[in-house]
Amino acid sequence: MTDSVRRLDATSLESAHRDVTVPGYDRAATTTGIVHLGVGGFHRAHQAVYLDELMALGRASDWAICGVGVLPADAHMRDVLREQDHLYTVAVRHPDGSLTTRVVGAMTDYLFAPDDPAAVVRRMADPATRIVSLTITEGGYALDQVTARADTDPPTAFSLLADALALRREAGETPFTVMSCDNVEDNGLIAKAALTAYAQTVDPDLADWIGEHVRFPGSMVDRITPATTDADRDEVAEQTGLHDEWPVVCEPFRQWVLEDHDGDHGSDHRPPWEEVGVQVVPDVRPFERMKLRLLNGGHQVLGHLGYLAGHRWVHEAAQDPAVGALLGAYLEREAVPSFEPPEGTDLSDYARTVRERFASPAIRDSLERICAQTSDRLPKFVLPVVRDQLAAGGDVRLGALVVAGWARYAEGTDEQGDAIDVVDPRRDELMAAAAAQHDDPTAFLRVTDVFGDLAEHDRFVTAYVAALEGLHTDGVRRTVERVLAET
């Protein structure tokens, strides 16, 4: 740090440059109303920002966030936030490359579950906590990829939730709301299934009580937040005059659609988020499908094929004439026809917005990030489109090419012969299947825990095998061009 740059904390806010938005409210006068499990870049650039904006309006002072780290790797986040009085910077990068910066103060505490799980349970059991929200990633729900049902041995998050709700029940207190903000279709129902399945194994009466009394609203959340780099830290420090060890850089676009069956928030229900742009609706499922199948599915279209072709950034893949054309065609020809749009929404316009966001060079989002954990992602984002198209007699050739791209990527080398670090919870199984597919082209599809019975659908298998053969013999661009011409 230079003499002109101070470390970000509560005492240095007055030194921030004049164009930086800083908390103008009294953080010491706020009280915790939300406990959030899984504090990463997305939560800090999305849900916490909405709450920070409410507090800046003089609202929601009793809804401050206590973050919770669930995994051992979250220790670094704990240390950074503690040193910074739980303040951090959100830097919005605009298409012209410029930044607007905001120091967010809505998070006022952070607990690290591996050190003291009892402290987390006590905080959630406190009657002041009215919402426990989750961004624990798609893999955090211990879902069966084929049935989308929760396993009975979920990760730590659900044991913490169950223990806290058991204390609330014993004390005769109203339970908190469990609010999933992960990219999982029917995320509210899935969170309920995961929690009640776990509770059933330890206390069936508790499981029944949870099923009857706990709210599990669904939500759709959207904002691209690439991993923070050292260059980002340096740029934020120059822009703000404050050194933030872990700022968040994000795109200008954001969306949050929240399900609320009661129609109004009330003092003990939720903050009045609609006052800062959150869409509150009685049924979030059409919005979920739109985002998961078009935006998240679109990432899967670009990821493996773009990486194989030699790109390393999302915008490079989106701007590639062949891969970018595949993205547009997949969205319009297969993803959009696979579901009914939310009322009043033009899906073609939304798809166009997705393509524009991906193509922006200002957001340096890595394909490596997009390609990680694919066995948790592609079955939720792409395979539902494939299955619905098969059921309706629709085209699946572009979806088959996307899946073939993953299978080719899992072989562990790109088209230039460079090694690929395959990051996936099923890495060994997937790479073994990919290694066998030169002699057995459907070997990858027969990983049934991921694909179910997809290998039994002749129309999909024919398109998949042709695409995989093309990727092996002709490469990404020629194969994409051929498939696009055929469709």
TrEMBL record:
Mannitol dehydrogenase N-terminal domain segment(s): 33-262
Keyword tags: NAD, Oxidoreductase
Official protein name in the record: Mannitol-1-phosphate 5-dehydrogenase
Family: Belongs to the mannitol dehydrogenase family.
MF-aspect GO terms: oxidoreductase activity
Domain called Mannitol dehydrogenase C-terminal: residue spans: 283-470
Catalytic activity: D-mannitol 1-phosphate + NAD(+) = beta-D-fructose 6-phosphate + NADH + H(+)
Tagged with keyword Oxidoreductase: yes
Keyword Oxidoreductase: yes
This enzyme's EC code(s): 1.1.1.17
